[in-house]
Each structure stands twice: as structure tokens, then as C-alpha cells.
Amino acid sequence: MRGIGIDAVSVSRIEKALFRTRGFAEAVFTSGERAECEGRPGRARALSYASRFAAKEAFLKALGLGVLGPVSLADVEVLPGGGGAATLSLGPTAAAALARGGGAAPLLSLSHAMDLAVALVVVP
Length: 124
Fold this sequence. Notes:
This protein has one domain (3-123): CATH 3.90.470.20. Helix 1 (11-20) crosses helix 4 and helix 3 (31-38) packs antiparallel against helix 4 (43-62). It is an alpha+beta fold. It has helices at 11-20, 24-28, 31-38, 43-62, 92-101; strands spanning 3-10, 76-80, 86-90, 107-113, 116-123. The termini are close together. The protein contains five helices and five strands; from the N terminus they run βααααββαββ. Helix content is 43%, strand content 27%. The protein is globular, with a radius of gyration of 14 Å. The strands form two sheets. It has a three-stranded antiparallel beta sheet. It has a two-stranded antiparallel ribbon with strand order 2-3.
């Protein structure tokens, strides 16, 4: 195993960032992620964004990188998987960082409770 990363995000904090910070969604989320999240009703919209944000940060932690490192959050995409499980799709910079670390395809688990979205990433 190459790394494990976990992150917990306040759904309210992400919701406020989406509302107050111009360009936040475009800087952090891919167009596909934004379409997926925007298609959700009510509170599920913010929860979907928060879960994705947590997954991106957990992936960077699993690689031993920080948010301000060489991989942008938008280069890591969270896709819906079969049976409700989410998967990660890596852009060129994220894929190169994974290859440099010698890791295989990352595994992702998402969860949430009340105002908290949590992601766990394992890089085998």
C-alpha cells in the first residue's frame, strides 16, 4: 500500500463558499462534477459538492501532497460508480503524481452525517 488519506468537510462551509466566493466551483470542480451536483435538489447539492471536495483532499493526502501542491483540485474528478460507489478519475497532473509515487488506481469511499462529508482514499 502506498498511502491512505482521509478528509472531513463541513457541508455548510462548502455551501457558503459556493455562494460567496466567485469562481470557487469552477476552480475546484470539473464541468462534469458541477453538472452532477447542480442536478441535485436542495441540500443534496451542497452535500454532493462537499463529498467531492473531501475526496479530492483525501486523494492528495494519500499521495503526501498538500492542497497548494503541484496537483490542482480540479485535476481530480469524482465520478458516480456502479451500485452507488464513487470512483476517482485523474487528470494528467494527478495521474503523473500517482505514477511518481508508484501507486495503483486509488480506491474511494464517501460518507456523510448531518453537516459532515467524509472521504477515505487508499492508494494501493
